[in-house]
Specification:
Blueprint lengths: L6 H11 L3 E4 L1 H17 L4 E6 L6 H9 L3 E4 L2 H9 L7 E3 L6 H9 L3 E4 L2 H13 L4 E8 L2 E2 L2 E2 L6 E2 H11 L8 E7 L7 H20 L6 E3 L12 H15 L15 E4 L2 E4 L12 H10 L8 H8 L2 E4 L10 E12 L5 E5 L18 E3 L10 E6 L14 E3 L8 E5 L20 E5 L11 E3 H4 L4
Parallel strand pairs: 1-21, 2-3, 2-14, 3-4, 4-5, 5-6, 6-9, 6-10, 10-11, 11-14, 16-18
Antiparallel strand pairs: 1-15, 7-8, 12-13, 15-16, 15-20, 17-20, 18-19, 21-22
Bound molecules: pyridoxal-5'-phosphate.
The site of pyridoxal-5'-phosphate has 14 residues, from loops.
């Protein structure tokens, strides 16, 4: 995608689709899926990869997952409805929504789509709707509360591992839930620990064994998502940033973030407290390698999770979102103005707002590329903050001060790299009645990238 960094081309793209524009590359999404599949095939595991589409709303990824014979994890009525309309086979879909309103449950049950249930109220509603529809409902059960290094892992989701077995045995064969057909277990853990996931998977295999003795067959265990992505080139760069940020917050050097924002660090009575509250952007073990280590995890004196799953014939499922979107998307915005604030800092205003590039991470720690129309001369270096269109002081697009080879001109473009996972859509809003960004897919057809190589997401679906 770096081949897209030409001012004339981006001018045409923004002219056609508006600013900002989210540009995606489907073949790279396919390569990410393939790398997960390779690890699963190496271990001869029956498997299903369900792309967690909450990480990016484009329909193109649903179509591509379908083409690659993998599935989609849906988190809302609209996500599910769109997948069905796009022609995805119901057996390739799962509903893991945190809140499952009646129309979502009804749609899933009518289409024989697997529902991952979180609590007994959901059991009650599914039974009621299935009865009304004179059919059965396919269900999996979300489990949580695993013990890792003598600590119970808290989660607001799922049934506690200590009570789920008796809940299943006391309820599933009774008339109360006669329309529910149990197929498997599910978990999704907060955070990014391989060993916590290893322990949780191991505990689910053991639970599946105990359930089997009681007559319940577990066909799959779904380990959710949360596979780390590596966004940075070097560990040294990552550590140096952390060190300089701490120094800046302590007042030992000039600020490196807007308003000396500590991104989680604070100074309390002269003492530095807190911790860096961002995504861990540098990760040597990432994506399919991270998943492989969860599969290869061995509880003391036991076989690996992969061996156990293989021997027991249990399908492993997962719902990667961010990791399947690594290196497949970027956000490009046009420069609207430059000015110096009252402290003398340069602010570069972009035609976009803070919700169009935002995740739960306190800041996005990747440097953007600026695509200049006029090439910089030597010694034009400048430090800037990029600001957005909302009427809020805090609409600073990246909190870090960035060093550029020159001050951008009005009409230059800023390319924010690797934004497809969560950054583009998760928090986007239409405040001030701004249009939402257009989502396009790029695939080179000729010798050089051209405007015809870009298609709106809504057009990509016609590939089905
Ligand atoms: C149930 C469930 N599955 C999958 C995911 C995807 O996680 P990630 O994008 O980190 O892989 C999430 C994310 O919140 C989730 O809640």
């Amino acid at each position: 995608m770096t081949e897209l960094g030409k001012h004339e081309l981006l001018e045409e793209v923004i002219e056609q689709f508006g600013s900002p524009v989210n540009i995606h590359h489907l073949p790279s999404f396919g390569s990410n899926i393939k790398s997960f599949e390779n690890e699963l095939e190496k271990r001869e595991l029956k498997h299903k990869i369900l792309f967690a589409r909450k990480a990016n709303k484009c329909q193109g990824f649903v179509v591509e997952s379908h083409k690659l014979n993998q599935g989609v994890d849906t988190a809302s009525y609209n996500e599910l409805k769109e997948c069905i309309a796009l022609g995805v086979d119901p057996s390739q879909l799962v509903v893991t929504a945190a809140i499952k309103e009646e129309r979502l449950l009804r749609l899933a049950i009518q289409n024989e789509i697997l529902l991952i249930l979180d609590n007994e109220d959901e059991f009650i509603q599914v039974q009621k709707i299935a009865n009304e529809l004179h059919t059965d409902a396919r269900i999996g059960i979300r489990v949580s509360g695993f013990t890792h290094e003598d600590q119970k892992l808290y989660s607001r989701f799922g049934f506690d591992i200590e009570i789920v077995e008796s809940f299943i045995c006391n309820n599933l064969t009774s008339n109360k839930y006669s329309a529910l057909s149990y197929e498997g277990l599910h978990f999704h853990l907060n955070g990014y620990s391989i060993s916590q996931r290893g322990v949780a998977l191991n505990a689910c295999v053991a639970l599946a064994d105990r359930l089997k003795e009681k007559g319940y067959t577990t066909h799959f265990i779904d380990i959710g998502g949360g596979f780390l992505v590596n966004y940075l080139e070097s560990q040294q760069e990552w550590e140096a940033f952390d060190e300089q940020l701490r120094k800046a917050v302590k007042g030992e050097r000039d600020e490196i973030t807007h308003g000396n924002n500590g991104l989680g660090y604070e100074l309390l009575e002269g003492e530095l407290i807190g911790r860096l509250n961002t995504y861990p952007y540098y990760n040597e073990v990432n994506k399919s390698n991270f998943m492989a280590q969860v599969l290869d995890y061995k509880a003391e004196g036991e076989k690996s999770n992969a061996q156990l799953l293989r021997e027991k014939g249990i399908e492993i499922r997962m719902e990667p979102g961010r990791s399947l979107l690594d290196q497949i998307g970027m956000t490009v915005a046009r420069v609207a103005f430059r000015k110096q604030d009252s402290k003398g800092d340069w602010l570069v205003g972009l035609e976009m707002n803070m919700t169009q590039m935002r995740s739960s991470s306190t800041d996005f720690l990747l440097d953007p590329d600026v695509i200049f129309k006029e090439k910089p001369a030597t010694n034009d270096e400048v430090e800037v903050y990029f600001t957005g269109a909302y009427c809020l002081e805090q609409d600073i697009l990246l909190k870090r001060k960035l060093s550029l080879s020159k001050l951008p001109d009005i009409g230059d473009f800023v390319m924010f790299i690797n934004t497809a996972g969560y950054m583009m859509h998760f928090y986007e809003s239409e405040a001030h009645l701004f249009d939402l960004a257009t989502n396009v897919f790029y695939e080179k057809t000729g010798d050089r990238p051209a405007l015809v190589d870009f298609a709106r997401d809504a057009h990509v679906q016609q590939l089905v």
